[in-house]
Amino acid sequence: MRRSAVHLISPFLLISLVLSSCSRDPNVRKQKYFQSGQEYFEKGKFAEATIQFANALRIDPKYAEAHYQLSQCYLKTQRFSRAFQELAITISLQPDHYGAHTDIANALIVANNFPEAQQETGLLLQKWPNDPQSHITASSLFAAQGKFPKAIDEMQKAIELNPSRWESYLGLALLQVKNNQGIEAESNFRKAAALSPKATDPLIMLGSYYQSTGRLNEAEQQFRTAISTDPKNPALYGFLAKLYLSEGKKEQAETLLSDAKLNFPADSVGYRMLGDFYSATGDLGRATDEYTRLYQQHSKDIQVKKNYVQLLILSNRLEEATKLIDEILKSNPNDNDGQLYRCEIQIRQGHYTDAIPTLQTLTTNDPANSLAHYYLGAAFERSGDLEGAQREWQQAVRIRPEMVEAQHGLAGIAIRKNDMAALEQAATAIISSQPSSPDGYALRAISNINRRHLADAEADVQKSVAVSPQSPVGYVEMGSLRLVQKKYQDAEAAYQQALDRNPNSSDALRGLINTELAQGHIDAALTAANRQIILAPKNSDFYDLQGTILFRNKKALNDAEAAFTKALELDKNNSDAVIKLGEVLAANGKPDQAILTYQQAIKDHPQQVSFYLLLGQLYEAKKDWNQAQDYYQHALALKSADPLASKNLANVMLQNGGNFDVALSLAQTARRAMPESADAADTLGWVYYHKAAYELAIGSFKEALRLGEKNRISDDPKIHYHLGLAYQKSNQSALARQQLERVLKISPDFPDAGEVRKQLAQLKS
User: Fold this and answer.
1) Nearest to 346, CA basis, from 338, 334, 354, 337
2) CB 698 within 8 A of CB 727
3) Is residue 763 part of a domain?
4) Which of 35, 206, 316, 579 is in the most buried spot, having the most CB atoms within 10 Å?
5) How does residue 280 score in pLDDT terms, banded at 50, 70 and 90?
6) Residue 616, C-beta contacts closer than 8 angstroms, at least 6 positions apart
């Protein structure tokens, strides 16, 4: 009997053929990649997991679960834009994918996109009302909107659906803290801890709550319990160290973190804590020394390298920092931190326009990157775009409220805008984050001094000095307080104490000079500036201050020019010195040199509105209306509602035969933005005059005179001249004559004195 051919095949060969067939099966191959990706993900190897999930998708681009798992990799590596794309694809392939809907809702909440987050959350509650996570997500949305009672209600629903989940009790407790329900919060912190005795989060959160309410012994007990519960977690030492710092126990904090470094020689978090402590407490020298040693010992630790780069930048060791940044970006060109550090160096070197596009790309691709928003704000601020800077810094603190650098930036803008309420808010946030730093108390003192809350200011300056007696910061604001109180000798002593601690303190020298000038001691002010220049000859601000004093004396304009020039040799980005150099050149009969100075400033700082305004004013003084109009229009292109540019452009358009309706719109913009400005009211009246609206013009000119008197500005002959002409056009001859005669009485050399006399002659005839 003849045997079948198949029976002649070796069993081993048959198995081999079957396996070969399986290896060519796309479904089998994609599953292998997917399973491999999951294994890498569970081990925290997200780069490898990303590759494997992508391999699965190359075989089957419609593999919904692979898209979802890839989104989780991107979330873990903070590539939020890519994560959002993968989540959207997941839902398009599998519309009822609960995890993807939940993650998208949470991503929208983090991005403060509340309308779309509301839609996603509504869908979760509609389709999956019995899943606790739906209510947890809804709770997160309400909390992000500040609607804490509603957030609490949703979290309580989640607990009813799953009363054994300790994380929900912890979330509820945190919400109750926000809603000032301390007793209830403490109870729920304890419930969370009881449900999961091995979890440290409830202990840490309860300890932080005790710390915030001044129950420091109980806080320490919770932190120590957390450390004993999970002794292999070095991060827990950080909470106890911060508690010690808040109590002024700096040495105990340092000892604790030194022990942590010894206890965790192979754990990056553990051995970095001491260096990070020095950095957080402002001890830049010891922090840099510590990280120099760490980098020598752990050169392959990327976080050590990155932290070391930051310290090198702060120490102005930019060349060393650049070499390490190049190493980081060579290894990974898309490393966000490496790109940020490079941008920071560009900002420090004055190359703001080079940094801005990179930072804008980073914030677009990764909107939750608080550092990218911070550095973009810094680039905008340096380039003169204060609105852009404020917007980015506000976004940074929305993402990370404890981000002190951004709060400092917002404080600086608040000072420039004279917004003392905003300054107090930023200062209080700094105090909350860094209670042992003098900066927050000093900034809040500025707010209180300006609002004449002198008792509160006194408490703040005393606290600023107490927490850091070797810092000049508290003494500077103590000097400012004494100056306001007209205790001039005490003010001088406080400013001198600040200079003794830091001979380069521009704020201290400025305060000392202002104290001398307040007493009419111009020579003493100049002596103070000269003395400090000898002690710190490379300080650009000191020459700027010296020039400012010299500028007060018309016979010393050449010396003032030399001082401002020297300030710019030391720091070409000293905008105040640039502005004053142009002003002193114009006052010294050198308007063309002033124009060249500001034109160069525009090349260096093309986004800074002030230089366009100054050039416009110089050309206006030369009666070159076309050039003046051009520069004012450039200013408005950068800042569309700038009131000074609007006012000046309106005036130039009247001189240049421009569109009176456009001029009116500009003048109204300026008037709304500068309601206390006599000049803005005069400009609006002058536009009304040219439009033959004489009654409106008279009202504006009268208001301009009232504002001038209110603000104690010297009687402006130009406004009287304009008012006289408006009275004349409205046939009020006696009032017209009164105003025109007033012009010649105030200013016999008034530029249009000839025209005034001509009008008076016509009125008499």
Assistant:
1) 354
2) yes
3) yes
4) 206
5) confident
6) 627, 628, 629, 631, 632, 635, 645, 648, 649, 652
d(CA 260, CA 596): 59
Q: How confident is the model at residue 4 (pLDDT cuts 50, 70, 90)?
A: very low
Q: Which two tokens stand for residue 380?
A: 């905008």
Distance CA 740, CA 569 (A): 49
DSSP class of 556: G
Distance from C-alpha of 375 to C-alpha of 395, rounded to nearest angstrom:
12
Enclosing domain of residue 696: 675-765
- Label residue 366 by pLDDT band (50, 70, 90): confident
Phi and psi torsions of 478, nearest 5°: -65, -40
18 token code pair: 């079957």
Rounding to the nearest 10 degrees, give the CA dihedral for residues 3, 6, 11, 12: 130
How far apart CA 440 and CA 457 sit, in angstroms, is: 12
Asked if 164 and 195 touch (Cβ cutoff 8 Å), the reply is yes
pLDDT at 5: 37
Structure tokens at 302: 């990327």
pLDDT on residue 319: 93
At 22 the pLDDT is: 46
Rounded to 5 degrees, what angle do the CA atoms 460, 462, 463 make?
65
Q: Report how far Cα 650 is from the mean position of its chain's Cα atoms.
A: 33
Tell me if 707 is assigned to some domain.
yes
d(CA 763, CA 731): 10
* Six-digit token string for 124: 């979760």
Closest CA to 50 of 60, 61, 59, 38: 38
In order of 158, 375, 389, 601, the CA distances from 383 in angstroms are 49, 12, 9, 11
Largest CA distance in the chain: 146
739 within some domain: yes
- The residue with tokens 């206390």 is 676
Instruction: Answer for the pair 354, 346: CB distance below 8 angstroms, yes or no.
Output: yes
Give the list of residues 6+ apart from residue 545 with CB closer than 8 angstroms, or none: 506, 509, 510, 513, 529
**727 part of a folded domain:** yes
Is the backbone of residue 44 left (phi > 0), alpha (psi -120 to 50) or beta? left
- Range among 102-106, 156-160, 361-365 rated most confident: 156-160
Q: Dump the DSSP string for 255-318.
A: HHHHHHHHH-TT-HHHHHHHHHHHHHTT-HHHHHHHHHHHHHH-TT-HHHHHHHHHHHHHTT-H
The structure's pTM equals 0.64
| CA pair distance 51, 70, nearest whole angstrom | 9
Predicted confidence band at 326 (pLDDT cuts at 50, 70, 90)? very high
**CA–CA separation, 253 vs 245, rounded Å?**
6
Residue carrying structure tokens 């396996």: 19
List own/partner pairs for 755-761 with CB under 8 A and 24 or more apart: 756/721, 756/724, 759/724, 759/725, 759/728
For residues 96 and 68, the answer to whether their CB atoms sit within 8 Å is no
pLDDT for residue 13: 43
Output 67-75 pairs: Cβ under 8 A, ≥24 positions apart. 67/93, 68/97, 68/99, 68/100, 69/34, 69/37, 69/38, 69/41, 71/100, 71/103, 72/41, 72/103, 73/37, 73/41, 73/46, 73/49, 74/50, 75/103
CATH code assigned at 714? 1.25.40.10
Mean pLDDT computed over 31-38: 91
**Buried b or exposed e, range 620-645, using 16+ CB within 10 angstroms:** beeeebebbbbbbebbbebbeebbbb
Total number of domains constituting the chain: 1
Q: 590-646: per-residue pLDDT in tens?
A: 999 999 999 999 988 887 889 999 999 999 999 999 999 999 999 999 888 899 999
Helix axes 678-690, 717-729, angle to 10 degrees: 30
State phi, psi for 200 to the nearest 5 degrees.
-100, -20
